Amino acid sequence: MELIQQIQENAIVAVIRGAKPSDMLKIATALREGGVKTLEITVDTPKVMTLIEEVSTELDQEVIVGAGTVLDAETARMAILSGAKFIFSPTVNVDLIKLTKRYGAVSIPGALTPTEILKGYENGGDIIKVFPANAFGPAYIKDIKAPLPQIPLMPTGGVNLENIGEYMKHGAVAAGVGSTLVNTRGDLTKERLREITETARQMLARVKQARSSLN
Fold this sequence. Notes:
Elements: H1 3-10, E1 12-16, H2 24-33, E2 38-42, H3 48-58, E3 64-68, H4 73-81, E4 86-89, H5 94-102, E5 106-111, H6 114-122, E6 128-130, H7 139-145, E7 153-155, H8 164-169, E8 175-177, H9 190-214
Parallel strand pairs: 1-2, 1-8, 2-3, 4-5, 5-6, 6-7
Helix pairs in contact: 2-9, 4-5
Subunit structure: Homotrimer.
InterPro entries: Aldlse_KDPG_KHG, Aldolase_TIM
Keywords: Carbohydrate metabolism, Lyase
């Protein structure tokens, strides 16, 4: 199965922002145990390149690790060389997309308007991150898919347990989920790790239910 297909099949991309370096592998393992197998580590996280390499190595074949909040081609290159399999960016940066594809990684640029979404796709974006998705909500995905059905859309920003199923029903191929799933503030106790695992399971159950309703 190709990487793009795996990301879509996995359905949820856990956005891990600002985690302590000593917590990253524990968080990644908790997510994997809950069934979430695609992890985005944002580049504003301390020691991010080392962490991408660590998680990629330790959980190889079990999870897909990528870099998020990438703003330039050089940062993307460093992340890919550290083991990132995909690059998330908050905007459409054509040079960044081209560099990502040149190195064989999946490009997921962020866009909001139809013009931005089409530009990102036409310039090589494999999946378009609709960001911030909570600006318009789940129905917006359906509105965009009507004139642009060929473009895979991944809502990110404000996706939670209550609305993830609606995003899927309206045509999202996957969803990026941040603090609702992984809140990195405070101490990472065993109880919080269990909560991450359980929330992951619940969100995937909502996705499965939504996808089943479409068949």
